[in-house]
C-alpha cells in the first residue's frame, strides 16, 4: 500500500449493497421502536 491509500477511508460499499443495508437497518430500527413503545401485533395477539 502506498501512503495515499493508507489515508483514504475504507472502500465504499457498492450501491446494490448499500440500499438493502439501509432498508434492513430502517426495518430493524422500526421493530425496536415498536417493541419499546409496547406495540405488539402478530399471531396470538389479535384482540386479547
Model description:
This protein is mainly alpha-helical and 48 residues long. Helices cover 56% and strands 0% of the residues. It has helices at 3-7, 15-36. It is elongated and about 50 Å long.
Task: Give a short synopsis of this structure.
The chain is 56% helix and 0% strand. The chain is built from two helices and no strands.
Determine the mean pLDDT.
Answer: 77
User: Total helix count?
Assistant: 2
Number of E strands: 0
Q: Supply the helix-strand structural class.
A: mainly alpha
Strand content: under 5%
Helix content: 55-70%
Q: Please summarize the sheet with the most strands.
A: none
Q: What Rg, in angstroms, do the CA atoms define? A: 20 Å
> What form results from the Cα inertia axes?
elongated
First-to-last CA distance: 62 Å
Pick out the low-confidence regions: none
Amino acid at each position: 500500500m502506498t501512503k495515499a491509500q493508507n489515508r483514504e477511508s475504507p472502500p465504499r460499499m457498492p450501491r446494490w449493497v448499500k440500499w438493502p443495508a439501509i432498508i434492513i437497518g430502517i426495518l430493524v430500527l422500526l421493530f425496536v421502536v415498536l417493541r419499546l413503545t409496547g406495540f405488539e401485533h402478530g399471531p396470538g395477539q389479535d384482540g386479547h
